Amino acid sequence: MVKKKILPIMLALFAALGLALLARPVQAAEPNYVITTDATYAPFDFQDKNNEYIGIDMDILKEVAKREHFTYTLKPMSFNAAAQLVANGQADGIIAGMMINDERKQVYDVSTPYYQSGVAWITKKGSSIKSLKELKGKTVALKTGTAAAEYGKQQQKKYGFKIKYFNDTDTMYNDVANGNSAATFEDYPVIAYAIKNGMKLQVMNPHNLGNAGGVGFFVQKGHNAELLAAFNRGFASIKKDGTYDKIINKYLNSKQSKFTGDAADNNSMWGILRSNKSAFMKGLWETIVLTVLAIILASLWGILLGVMGISQSKWIRGTSTTIIYAFRGLPLMVLAFFIYIGLPGVIGTKIPAFTAGLLTLILNEGAYTGAFVRGGFEAVDSGQMEAARSLGLPYGTAMRKVVIPQGLKIMIPSFINQFIITLKDTSILSAIGILELTQTGTLIVARNSQGFRVWAIVAAIYLIVITLLTWFSNWVQRRIKY
Ligand code: ASN
């Protein structure tokens, strides 16, 4: 029986894969902490021209870790995801220019404040809007999960504007600079730094910031007291010997271009491509690895679901239908957040972003594959099965030798289509901080503000890879057919 042979092999394969992916790294001698951060939040957190993370937060963290003898694995991503990961224990701490306030104290334990901040309201440079009242009915851009967004929401009650959410500060700024949104709210040091570096925006309340307060390092409430104590000790020590002042000076008395090199760089398409060659290559490689693994594993999983879908047992058929229904119905990003941010809190094991991303793709693309595989088998004329059976072939052999080969041929175009969709879907995983091609593009734009050129390059790379994938699939198709 075909099912009998394939089922256990596939189940074993998935079990082995699951175990390998969930296995946790071995503990090192010095404590190693997972610290999340905002991927683009200059002057606190951003990348230099070599794609190294720098900024006030990064320098403080590095110095504190050295003095307090701990190591850390840095996870840059959207601020909202970075904060969630710490709130539910997936990561140990977050340093992301994060404001200390009472709501956050309910969820996190907080370090001594290491910087003073407050919320600015911001419009396009030269905008005719002069007061918050004039925002009535207009759209205001906010960044998900931030203290500035909370402040913006309070103002909304009073001034009646509409809200549009973004995941990162640069895209949000650009929405205002382009005139799509009328205003935004963001922490003063961050907008001041962007304006100094040429962002065409203006701060409307420089002397009257909202919710002024400190910026701190956060850990999950009731956990990681040791890490928090180490941070506070380390911070006191760098404050005392002047290292802290040097760090602040380094970032606030200079231009961003000094770090990112973009002013000196040639910002033509070719120049951007050349100066970010290694970043693009790394991003592309991550996209390819994810795509190839996802295509193989999702196809196997989908074929299994499809075969189950035409089983003689109604239980097996029902299981397949339910799985397909559930995972085809969920938006990919919801599934990714659920696996990466939600699940670990329940199962008590951290899931690395790559594993979570791959699992998301397998479950989602596998469900689509399952549906067309089932359809493909059903499309094989029932006379084929009857003829095979009347020739004396048992059900399994008839399936394997007669129905499946014909069904697979019908499905080939659908497979190719699904492969291309899988490749494109990897871009959604940038939301959980996987540094694939799209996330790479976001980081580069945050650095050089060359949105049009960088996204044109990223789009061209996707098209090239999709063309290669289509050629390859067509070549395989021809070989199977003739
Ligand atoms: N400043 C933000 C906050 O306090 C954090 C961020 O956007 N990185 O919520």
UniProtKB/TrEMBL annotation:
A Pfam family: SBP_bac_3
Residue span, ABC transmembrane type-1 domain: 284-473
Protein name in UniProt: Periplasmic component/domain (HisJ)
TM region positions: 284-310, 322-343, 452-472
Entry's family note: Belongs to the binding-protein-dependent transport system permease family.
Primary location group: membrane
Organism: Eupransor demetentiae
Transferase among keywords: no
Keywords of the record: Cell membrane, Glycoprotein, Ion channel, Ion transport, Ligand-gated ion channel, Membrane, Receptor, Signal, Transmembrane, Transmembrane helix, Transport
Leader sequence segment: 1-28
InterPro entries in the cross-refs: AA_ABC_transptr_permease_3TM, ArtM/GltK/GlnP/TcyL/YhdX-like, Glu/Gly-bd, Iontro_rcpt_C, MetI-like, MetI-like_sf, Solute-binding_3/MltF_N
Annotated SUPFAM superfamilies: MetI-like, Periplasmic binding protein-like II
UniProt subcellular location: Cell membrane
Membrane topology: Multi-pass membrane protein
PROSITE patterns in UniProt: ABC_TM1
Protein's UniProt keywords contain Transport: yes
